[in-house]
Amino acid sequence: MKELVEVIAKALVDNPEEVVVTESMKGEDTLIELKVSPADMGKVIGKQGRIAKAIRSVVKAAASKEDKKVIVEIQ
Question: What NCBIfam families has UniProt attached to this entry (predicted)?
Answer without folding.
Answer: PRK00468.1
